[in-house]
Write a structure and sequence with these properties.
With 275 residues, the chain is an alpha/beta fold. The chain has 10 helices and 11 strands. Helices cover 40% and strands 17% of the residues. The model has no long low-confidence stretch (mean pLDDT 96).
């Protein structure tokens, strides 16, 4: 069994990106994070992104608003980031307070600065295969498969989960790479049967250990996108210990997809700088 560790993938991508960034010269490539409210996870991620961006030599702007911020105040903050020519990429962090209409807000984001592919405009481009920014987590899954020379052509790819940020886009990317794709979700009646047909299984449903050993075909490749808390530990959607002896390759959690996602974000900021 090959453990598909994310660090090797991230390092390879960072090395190429570092050369591109060096060629930019004295210009500063800058990303911004829009943080509204008190969500602990969002605050932790903002701190992590700041450290990652600065370590890479990027500029970083944190636009932070309190839990009590109104829709108009959040829209005004986003407009400020949209119109600031020194900011190249913007990441609005979720979740925001319940009274904020995040869907309306996201579609006010400048598509050229939409580094995580959240806007309807970019979703449309990605769906049509016409470029655009794709969600970084979906790109990370594909980057891992490419790095470890796991071809999708002619393979049956089963995606578990249908969210806009991972399930749908990764299914489209697998299709573009000539995989035969089946999408499953919480209402798929024969989930175990469907997953067992997969040569490559991408688990992105957000439920701890929902993919068990009896659902995996011997020799399958398993990409685990899930990040869940279970008995005080961070675990994926796949029961790693049980599945690792059946799969030919599997991503660990933590240390798999997540570590590559951040690097995809850095790449997207560079692309936005050139947009």
């Amino acid at each position: 069994m090959i453990e598909l560790r994310g660090k090797a993938v991230a390092d390879a991508h960072k090395a190429i990106l570092q050369e591109k960034v060096a060629a930019v010269g004295n210009s500063v490539i800058t990303m911004a994070v829009l943080l509204v409210g008190e969500d602990h996870g969002a605050h932790m991620y903002a701190t992590f992104m700041e450290k990652t961006a600065k370590n890479f030599g990027y500029g970083f702007v944190l636009k932070q608003l309190p839990e009590t911020a109104t829709q108009d105040e959040v829209v005004a903050a986003l407009h400020e980031l949209n119109t600031d020519p020194s900011i190249h990429g913007i990441l609005p962090l979720m979740p925001m307070p319940k009274h904020i209409d995040t869907e309306a807000l996201i579609d006010m984001l400048d598509p050229k600065k939409d580094i995580d592919g959240l806007t309807t405009y970019n979703i449309g481009l990605v769906t049509a295969g016409k470029g655009g920014f794709a969600p970084c987590t979906a790109k990370a899954c594909m980057a891992i498969l490419n790095h470890y020379n796991i071809p999708l052509e002619g393979k049956h790819v089963v995606v578990v989960g249908r969210s806009q940020v991972i399930g749908k886009p990764v299914a489209l990317m697998a299709l573009a790479a000539h995989g035969t794709v089946t999408m499953c979700h919480s209402r798929t009646p024969d989930l175990a049967e469907q997953v067992k047909r997969g040569d490559i299984v991408i688990a992105a449903a957000g439920r701890a250990h929902m993919i068990t050993a009896d659902m995996i075909k011997p020799g399958a490749v398993v990409i685990d996108v899930g990040i869940n808390e279970l008995e005080g530990k961070t675990v994926g959607d796949v029961d790693y210990e049980a599945v690792k002896d059946i799969a030919s390759a599997i991503t660990p959690v933590p240390g798999g997809v997540g570590s590559v996602t951040t690097t995809m974000m850095l790449e997207a900021v560079y692309e936005a700088y050139h947009a």
